[in-house]
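Appendix B, Record 12. Input sequence as logged:
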Amino acid sequence: MSLSRRRFIAVSLSLISGSVTAAEELVWNGRGFGADLSIKIRGTRSSTLDHSLIKLRAEIAYLESVFSLYDPDSEISKLNRNSFISEPSKPFIELLEQCRVLHSMTNGIFDPTIQALWHAMAWNNDIAKTRVGFEYLSFNPEFIKFKHSGMSLTLNGIAQGYATDRIAALARKMGFQQCLINIGEIAALGGPWHVGVENFQAKHLAVAKLQNNAIATSSSDAMRIGKHSHILNPVSGEPPSWKTVSVQTNTATLADGLSTAMVFLDRTQIAKLAKLFQPTVVLLEDFSGKIIEIR
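Logged structural output:
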């Protein structure tokens, strides 16, 4: 674990400093969820941070043990392997409840059971035999199970946002008042913080002003499965409508889930969905490079 005053680095977002000087900003850089993570803090002396950072990193490691597809011993990996787990953790159930809301509000476009289809396409298996559908997932504090064998779950379209919110809540409980947290998505305590939004090609799209809210970005071309985007449409199978979708709203969980789903929606659908979750700002980049903002 290291604490430094180096330039704050994000995977898909470059952060533009506000009016404070570099000497007043401390940055922790680490790894988690298969990516670079950063926590940027204003107005706190480095000598007071060691114990707090240990707790924050421990929380990140715990959430990875629940949601990481890269860890064969994580809760989600065990569920995918066995189609059932008993006594799931509280974070797992909390996040699935939020997935249920987004699945309903997006008419099934947001569906974390898409993982089985992703694997079928990646390994050229028979897609017709792949079962997808959040309605086939049962969960409560006692168990999580799939109705059909061969189904699998990915929370990559929302878990990093949820982790970002959990770390932000823990930082707030510790007394941090000015903090910018990047756990794949970005949440701000205090502010204002100015965040430069980029697509996966590092093209600058806009500057977002964050103050006690969050932002998440999905780029449909960031990774490919053959000719297909890594973000799959579970309803129609149609390709993404947008190259990049960035959502700014109250929580990183919601911003993450909405940006994932909105990749497949048209402008009218996006505007309608944004109004349901006010205050929400959506930044769209189409495949010609045109930028559209919806509030």
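Helices lie at 50-67, 75-82, 90-105, 115-122, 159-173, 252-262, 267-276.
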